[in-house]
Predict the structure.
Amino acid sequence: MRVTVQDLADYKRRDEKFAMVTAYDYTSAQLVDRAGLPLILVGDSLGTVVQGHDSTIPVTLQDIVYHSRMVVRGSQRAMVVGDLPFMSYRDAAQGLESAARLFQEGRVQAVKLEGGGKMAEVVAAIVEHGIPVMGHLGYTPQSAYQFGKQIVRGKTREQAHAIRDEARRLADAGAFAVVLECVPAALARMVTSELAVPTIGIGSGPDTDGQVQVWHDLLGLYADFVPRHAKQYARLAETIEGALTDYQDEVRAGLFPTERHASSLPEETLRALLQEVGQPRRA
Ligand code: KIV
C-alpha cells in the first residue's frame, strides 16, 4: 500500500518530519522506495537536470506523463506526485483536464502546481474530482522570467503576508500539502504553524514539516555546482567519472572483459570450429 494523503496529515499531527526527493525513472524510483522515503516528485525540474534546458518552461505534460509511468513502475510504497508543467493549468477546466491525464496515463497519486491564491480555483476543481493536489509557493521556477535574479520570496512585509495568505487559500481550496521554495526560514516556520496541512520546504530552513530535494543536487551528480539550498549526501559525479575512466583504461589495456564475462563454447564445438576455420588472428 502506498503512502496516502492521510499518512502525511498524520505525520504533521505527530510532528514527524519527512523527506521527499525528485526521481525521473524506474531505477531511481526503486532506490527511493528501498531507502524508505514516503514521497517522490516527478518534478518539471526534469527540464533542466534530465533534458538539459535552461529552465522548466519547455517541459510538456507528455514529458511528465512519460517519466511518471517509469517512476510509478519502479516504486511500490512511496506516493508519486507529478508536476503540472507550464501552461497546463491556465484555468480550472484545463487544470482538471491536465491533472486527469497525468493521473490516468501517468498513474501518479497526486499532482503539484505552482502559484498562489489565483490557483485556488484550479486546486478546488481538481480536488473535487478526487485528485489530490500539492501547492507550490515562494520561488516558483515556471515564473522564473518574471522573478529575474530575485530567488528568495517573502522578504518584504507585503510579500510575507501574501505568501501566508496564499498558503491558507491553497489549503482552504483542498491542497493536501504546500511546497515552500526559497522562503525565509522564519516565514516558513510561521506558515507551517498556521497551516493545517503539511509544508514541504526547499531552501526554506529547518522548520517546515517536510523537505524536498532534487535528485541530482542531493547525490552530487553535478561536480561543479551545488545550489545554496542543497546538501550533497554523495558525490556521484566523481564516482561515475572515476568508474568510466577505469572502464575505458581497462578496455584499452585489454584487462576487460575477461573470459569470465562471456560464455564458453563446448569443447567439441570449439575443436570442430578450429579445424574448419583455423585459429582466429588475435587469440
Ligand atoms: O520540479 C521540481 O523538482 C520541484 C521541486 C524543486 C520542488 O518543483
Summary: The pocket of 3-methyl-2-oxobutanoic acid is lined by residues 22, 41, 43-45, 83, 136, 179, 181, 202, 212, 214 (CB under 6 Å).
